[in-house]
Amino acid sequence: MEVNGKKRILKIFARLQNGEGINKEEMAQEYKVSTRSIQRDLSEIDGVVSDPYFAGSGKTSVKYDRNSRKYYMLQENSELLLPEEALAVCKILLGSKVLSKKQIKNIADKLMKKDSGRAQAVGAGEIRNELEYYRENSEKVELSKIWELERSIEGQKYISIVLKTDNNEYQKVKIAPKGIVFLEQEFYLAASKGADDKHLEIYRICDIKEVINLEEKFSVVYAKRFQVGKFREEWEKKMKGSLEGSSLLVECA
What we know:
Layout: H1 5-17, H2 24-31, H3 35-49, H4 52-55, E1 59-65, E2 70-76, H5 83-96, H6 101-113, H7 117-132, H8 143-155, E3 157-164, E4 170-183, E5 186-192, E6 199-204, E7 208-217, H9 228-238, E8 247-249
Antiparallel strand pairs: 1-2, 3-4, 3-7, 4-5, 5-6, 6-8
């Protein structure tokens, strides 16, 4: 069934918006029109999306990529990740092996969709290929748990955590959460028994079975706050080996 000009333009526009690359010859064959007609369609679409009213905070245009021989809708926006930035983040996530295959795919899909269509064409295929051979660790961290802990840290609220011991028993511990650290392909929670206690307990987040938020708040002077970067630097200087179950004295100021 033939598609009239307006419907054809709308269909091509929808494809471009979804990050798909448009090859003139393929489109001409699909819609049974000349390549000149497809070129006019692309020019009309470019004229519309280039309008500042349409683009909003970023500059949008339809550009030809010589490598793929396709046209893509590109958006220049400093608030979005650049194609190379999104690809680098995906590579780091894949290399860390801290997330499940499903989690990685979900994040990678969102990151690549925030980029230009060309970025999807160049990087998405490689990410999909790497995901195919991605081997998960046996234990996977729950991102919702990390977020819940971070909110308690920001709100300076005491929490109780339920931990599984070496004897396969469970114990509940009341702590003041200070910071989340990513080291040696693991997420850890740094916490103390009291707000001003300089002795930090380090808990592997995968070992935390439950987080119970308490109404009791603690207060830490800004100058005495826990600094993740400083902690990591000091740890790498002084300590080697396993983190979980350890206790150390940290000067936060």
